[in-house]
DNA sequence: GGGACCATCTAACGCCGTTAGGGTATCCCT
DNA sequence: AGGGATACCCTAACGGCGTTAGATGGTCCC
């Protein structure tokens, strides 16, 4: 371990962009977004925090690197089927991939990183839609809409923060606390919330996600038959 | 100013939950989410940071307070019209309100605070949908879907972070940098992205938002005629 | 007048992102 | 072969952060 230290250049640098990403994802998965610090990532690489600044300008830039790597490589996606099936499969694969990394949605949140993975996904979806007969504007808007929905959904699904319930509660526990809060709201003021608490709460995330994706796609289909 | 200080209880406490919210929103609007610290909020109230912990358990709890206050009071919304018009108006009002506060979407992001404002909005939307003939599950799913979309959209619209472009760039500048990145991507690999760069980028946010909301509502409408 | 308690204070801990500046191994040029 | 340039990592430090412990002093009730 403590051999080639003390300011050496060991032929192949200890820190590369790839290593940064790997280490960052490791810390993220193990400790979560709030604990993702430059010092922790550096430690993961057996290195001092300040050394990271040789490879990266900011923490922001590190997060940008992580962000693109969290947009999975969509090349693995099977693309037989019509535009609707393909889009639906993509949405589900995207969500599924994001949920393999703790707090991934918070890394992505409000970040647009035109890295290779994003470019490929966008290009593929745009291609499907244009081929299907959507106008250019429709194709572009639809693609972004879908991305917005999926990211927004996963962000809520991973339930990053809330002071409800026990302090370091799991997403599921917080979700239950929210449902319970809905259920016990004043019935006279909020009858619908109380009546539908079990649906409105965070339960049955899979169903909710599928429902939203299907609604989006059906909404798109109405643009198609109208001529475009 | 420096009169009734030094550990006094000045009859009406200097810090109340309302004052906390006001001060928090002031700091947020003036300096943005990243600069929203307990110390700054305390300074806004002419008080030491530690004093806030008498009224609030965490910074998380303070953010929860801010979150509910960022869900505007929907009682002001006019509700004549059918379910589709009402829902559309609500979505636009929600977005509009969020954009009156800098970084509001980041406060809301991944946070579910069953405060009075959220409960009212939810209950109203659920009521519209049930009255229109949607099933309970559909009403609940649809409501959450709409909320997810609006929040996700505003989160991207406010473009919180990115190391693209100049460091402290405005959202618009970053948006242009993203569009430019799309436009100058390798044409042979990403022909659709390059061709539609102007649409795919962050330009014309109003159009994009309206498009998405309309698609969602059309998607919902298909559930209605099918019988529910 | 005196105790209880409310609401604020001061002081400090350990963590954070980031910068400045030092030092050594490797490469290139002569 | 020698020497300067460069790449890559180090140590040390700064100021800011969230949070806690404990002191302090007004205000209220008996």
From TrEMBL, chains A, B:
- Please give the SUPFAM superfamilies that the UniProt record associates with this protein: Homeodomain-like, Tetracyclin repressor-like, C-terminal domain
* Record flagged with keyword Lipid metabolism: no
> HTH tetR-type domain location, by residue?
14-74
Give UniProt keywords alphabetically: DNA-binding, Repressor, Transcription, Transcription regulation
* Residue ranges flagged as DNA-binding region: 37-56
Query: Keyword Cytoplasm: yes or no?
Result: no
Q: Name one Pfam family in it.
A: TetR_C_1
Family matches, as InterPro entries:
DNA-bd_HTH_TetR-type_CS, Homeodomain-like_sf, HTH-type_TetR-like_transc_reg, HTH_TetR, Repressor_TetR_C, Tet_transcr_reg_TetR, Tet_transcr_reg_TetR-rel_C_sf
The protein's name in its UniProt record: TetR/AcrR family transcriptional regulator
């Amino acid at each position: 371990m403590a051999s080639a230290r003390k300011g050496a250049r060991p032929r192949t640098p200890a820190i590369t962009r790839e290593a940064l990403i790997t280490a960052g994802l490791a810390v993220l998965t193990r400790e979560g977004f709030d604990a993702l610090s430059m010092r922790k990532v550096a430690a993961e690489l057996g290195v001092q925090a300040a050394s990271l600044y040789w490879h990266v300008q900011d923490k922001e830039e590190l997060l940008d690197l992580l962000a693109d790597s969290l947009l999975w490589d969509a090349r693995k996606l099977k693309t037989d089927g019509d535009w609707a099936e393909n889009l639906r499969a993509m949405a589900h694969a995207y969500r599924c991939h994001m949920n393999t990394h703790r707090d991934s949605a918070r890394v992505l949140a409000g970040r647009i990183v035109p890295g290779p993975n994003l470019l490929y996904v966008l290009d593929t979806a745009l291609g499907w839609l244009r081929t299907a007969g959507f106008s250019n504007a429709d194709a572009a808007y639809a693609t972004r809409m879908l991305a917005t929905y999926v990211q927004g959904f996963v962000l809520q699904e991973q339930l990053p923060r809330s002071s409800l319930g026990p302090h370091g509660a799991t997403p599921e526990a917080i979700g239950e606390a929210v449902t319970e809060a809905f259920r016990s709201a004043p019935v006279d003021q909020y009858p619908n919330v109380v009546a539908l608490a079990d649906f409105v709460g965070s339960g049955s995330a899979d169903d909710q996600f599928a429902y939203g994706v299907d609604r989006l796609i059906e909404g798109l289909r109405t643009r198609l038959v109208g001529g475009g």
